[in-house]
Design brief:
The chain is an alpha/beta fold. It has one domain: Glutaredoxin (3-Layer(aba) Sandwich).
Length: 179
């Protein structure tokens, strides 16, 4: 399933490590909500990626962007990832259903056993995705991957957000007519 810019995104409701729940759209950030789907504790690239997000989180917040990192891992594995990445105030959601992952357009992989860092992969898990969602619940920007490599860089996303806000740049890729 492919999500379209300027159209509503699927529902997202996940428990968070702070003991609450994250419901996309319940209390939207002023500019965007950034939803970062990651593979799980078994992924060393995810750990590096989330460490960078946690480091740059204040920069996103200054721009009116809220952020959450979400995976299908359980609470225990998510806590381990939060520790590993020094997540600090980064919201960490867990227990993403694979059905919900598919609704977001994420691809699903099967386990290949232990990873290079010796952590067992879940039987099934989603591959990465990153989405900027407007306060009205519509998609502004989205990126999904079939592999863990070469993800969007957070510093480049910050620069893009500055450009978008300054120039009132519209979401692109919304055309669904005949080609």
């Amino acid at each position: 399933m492919s999500l379209l810019p300027r159209h509503p995104v699927p529902q997202l409701l996940v428990p968070t490590l702070d003991g609450g729940h994250f419901a996309l759209g319940a209390t939207p950030a002023p500019a965007f909500e950034m939803v970062v789907f990651y593979r799980g504790l078994h992924c060393p690239i995810c750990a590096k990626y989330l460490t960078e997000l946690a480091r740059l989180l204040p920069e996103f917040e200054q721009r009116g962007v809220g952020a959450i990192a979400v995976s299908s891992d359980d609470e225990e594995r998510t806590r381990e990832m939060a520790k590993k990445t020094n997540a600090g105030s980064l919201r960490m959601g867990y227990g993403l259903s694979l059905k919900s992952a598919r609704q977001w357009g994420l691809t699903i992989s099967t386990s290949r056993g232990k990873t290079s860092i010796g952590i067992e992969e879940p039987a099934l898990f989603s591959e990465p995705g990153l989405f900027l969602v407007r306060p009205d619940g519509t998609l502004y920007w989205g990126s999904t991957q079939t592999m863990p490599f070469a993800r969007p860089h957070f510093d480049e996303i910050l620069g893009a957000i500055d450009f978008v806000v300054k120039n009132d740049y519209p979401a692109r890729g919304e055309y669904t007519g005949e080609v």
